What does this fold into?
Amino acid sequence: MKRYQLLFIFVILSFALFAFLPANAQPKSPNVVIILADDLGYADVGTYGAPKIDTPHIDKLASQGMKFTEFYAENLCSPSRAALLTGSYARRVGVSTVFWPDSDDGLNPDEITIAELLQEEGYATAAIGKWHLGHKKPFLPTSQGFDYYFGLPFSNDMGPNARPAKGPYDPLPVMRNEEVIERGPDQQQLTKRYTEETVQFIEEHKNKPFFVYLAHTMPHVPLHASQDFRGTSDFGLYGDVVEEIDWEICKPSGWEIGNYILKAKEGTTTIFIMTIRMILSSVKTKSYTTWRRTLGSSGIWLLTTRRSSKN
It folds into this structure.
């Protein structure tokens, strides 16, 4: 039943997006890129009304695709990810709260994720960024349908700087597949590093269907932006962080992620799904999020396609 549920969701999204393609375009196996921004307010990008945060590249994606404004969703880090990847209510797959560095459980590997379905269809699959569905081996992305993983296994406030009621924990781990390769990373560089990993994976698999789940750590607190973006927005550090995410998605030098997709073999179509795990309180990060939206989380936000016409 769960398998058919996920297939149904994917088919509906595919039909909706293919309506934007030329009549003679009939892609068989579209690439899929899901970009998740953590704690980004509903109205903190231009296409949803942000007056002081500049996101021209995300806005362009929205203008060329489909934008959604109503949804039901989870409001915590781990449940929102469980729902997004399985197509089920998080509680139905046993994820009702947030996993911590001292948690022994995670998303049951018996649950079926969209990555597993696409993997069975010959897709190369990667999870890059914040995972937060269990950091022990049975629950890692490589046990949930992903061929490759790079990122933080949980939130960026779950290290030595953990909130008073929890921790302190060891310095944050950076993982590649099932191994910890680094401790205490420079969080100012996380957004950039995630982009680099995404681009590398797409470059290596551009001649076959691929699925990339890019889950940005930011703008979850504590906020960090690279030196190139600190102090550049009109909305403080929070605005700097959001504008860097926008720039990394579509760098002016060539639409960073999309640039490599366009190099894929002729006729390749890519579905972009950008979604957000919205903040619980708009006061928390001085977000422009309207109060009627503050309890929303991880709803489908905007969809668009990119089609390659040449190698």
About this structure: The domain at 2-17+31-307 is CATH 3.40.720.10 (Alkaline Phosphatase, subunit A). DSSP finds seven helices and nine strands in the chain.
